[in-house]
Amino acid sequence: MMLRLLQISLFLNLLCLKLSAEESAAIPIVDCHVHLWDLKRPEGVSWIKQDNKMLYRNFLPKDHEPIAAANNVKGVVVVQAGHSLPDNQWNLDITAHNKSLYRGVVGNLSKIIGTSEFKPAFEKLCEDKRYVGYRLSGRSQEKLTDAFYRDLQITADKGKTVDFLVGEYRLDEIADIAKRIPNLKIILDHFGGVTLDGSPLDTEWVKSFRTVALQKNIYCKVSALFGRVKEQPAPRDIRFYTPVIDLAFECFGEDRLIYGSDWPVSETTGDYASVIKLTKAYFDGKGRGVSEKLFHKNAVSFYRITDLD
What we know:
By secondary structure, the chain is α/β, with parallel strands linked by helices. Helix content is 42%, strand content 14%. It has helices spanning 2-24, 61-70, 86-94, 118-125, 146-157, 171-180, 190-193, 203-213, 238-252, 272-283, 288-303; strands at 29-34, 73-79, 102-108, 131-136, 161-164, 185-188, 218-223, 257-260. Strands 1-2-3-4-5-6-7-8 form an eight-stranded parallel sheet. α6 packs parallel to α8 (203-213) and α8 runs parallel beside α9 (238-252).
């Protein structure tokens, strides 16, 4: 009997050690919101003011790659920083040397969606399998036309995604798009455009956010935590951000939330590691399984990028 008890005790100790090792192993990260830009590009990056000493300079792979390596980032989805049509290809070209890291590119087709230019340009870009979709951050038409929906259907049928920067497109419009094209994968950048100033979340915005989350083909990026704060530099205390993350987790659940740093815009408040640390401060409490989904599994599924080794 004593020998049997010792065997059971040894087994339980070994099991605990195994579980402890698994828990302590770092979770690999896929960062789904990184910007790269070169101010010498023809259209530049018009939204960055020249007096912004932090951001008014070039941010290229040579600047980003060491940061990614130091922070266990195993995959990146680059999101185009402006509306320039040629910059869709430029983002693919500038990252082609390191496809194991730069696994996807979200371009920007705001200027041509709903026009005759869209289909040939989109199909050409899709010849590179790393072109996972595009972002709509600007608006060239007042109403959502049949041609606009036509191009979104082409996108869905191609298995590509659409990032929405809420503002030019309202949450209720995005919900309607999701209903009309249920096979289109949509993601809301930066918590659906929320602004944080320490006050309770706007009740009308919360209502719209809850409504859009009912559409199961819509995901939400846990991104730009620092950038959503009205006054910069932003707080680094997770309690400041808990209300909006609580809401996102409640509405979208663990399977439709995806991590993004918003680097280098995040540098306005803190370094790359501080964004990850802040996000982990919340999601570590949800358990390893939830963190794995947030930091890479959901990204692999949504953007259809190669899984991590």
